[in-house]
Design a protein that fits this description.
Blueprint: E1 2-5, H1 11-28, H2 42-50, E2 54-58, E3 64-71, E4 92-100, H3 109-123, E5 128-134, H4 138-146, E6 150-157, E7 166-174
Parallel strand pairs: 4-5
Antiparallel strand pairs: 1-2, 2-3, 3-4, 5-7, 6-7
Helix pairs in contact: 1-2
Bound molecules: coenzyme A (COA).
Coenzyme A (COA) binds next to strand 4, helix 3 and helix 4.
């Protein structure tokens, strides 16, 4: 499997994954609460691409099955969470807008993407991983807990201006010190 920075030609496939998740949610029930026309959109994909912060995971056949945005940018509401320690922004690697194509879920790709994200942070000398998910997202919470993340608080709001306030949970994983 290959984990790499996305290039312009991945934009359509990344949006396809995000839209497939939104479609799945519209029929199967809300988990991450994404909605095609609100979030994530092509604008989300393009801003991740132009910042060089959009990453993809390819399966053995070379098909992109998962994507997410990785950077040092902590949303404003992270200030309200009870993080284990104060860290400089450069010491924190944040994962946003992470998803696996619905047809490819439950095959270990989510865990694999997360292990590359963790390695990237470790190699960059970061001290901790931080991310958020919505309270209804039981699948992602199960994944993050399994990987050793702990919760740091809850916040209700509408950071993506969707007119649909949601309850967000902060999660963190402290990385072992560099050898
Ligand atoms: C959350 C998500 C990324 C997991 O991806 P995945 O490829 O299915 O995950 P994996 O196959 O690696 O599974 C890893 C663990 O996640 C949890 N998990 C995954 N799918 C689950 C489900 N349907 N129900 C309960 N737990 C689930 C389990 O703990 C699983 O471990 P196990 O296989 O040993 O039981 C995927 O469900 C997804 O894209 N969801 C929609 C978008 C989303 O919620 N993104 C996260 C935003 S914060």
């Amino acid at each position: 499997m290959i984990f790499r920075k996305a290039v312009d030609s991945d934009a359509g496939r990344c949006l396809e994954i995000y839209d497939a998740i939104s479609d799945w949610e519209a029929t199967m029930g809300k988990q991450c609460c994404w909605e095609k026309e609100f979030y994530p959109t092509m604008e989300t994909v393009k801003s991740g691409l132009s910042a060089g912060e959009l990453y993809v995971l390819e399966d053995e056949a070379g098909q992109v099955v998962s994507c997410g945005i990785i950077n040092h940018s902590q949303p404003e509401f992270y200030k309200l969470f009870d993080w284990a320690f104060e860290a400089d922004f450069s010491e924190v690697l944040v994962l946003h807008t992470f998803g696996v194509e619905p047809a490819m879920q439950k095959k270990g790709y989510g865990k694999t993407f997360m292990s590359f994200y963790e390695k990237m942070a470790y190699d960059a000398g970061c001290k901790t991983l931080r991310l958020d998910t919505v309270i209804s997202n039981k699948k992602s919470q199960a994944l993050y807990k399994k990987l050793g993340f702990t919760t740091t608080g809850q916040w209700e709001g509408d950071p993506n201006q969707t007119d649909r306030p949601l309850t967000f949970i902060g999660l963190e994983k402290i990385l072992p010190p560099e050898k």
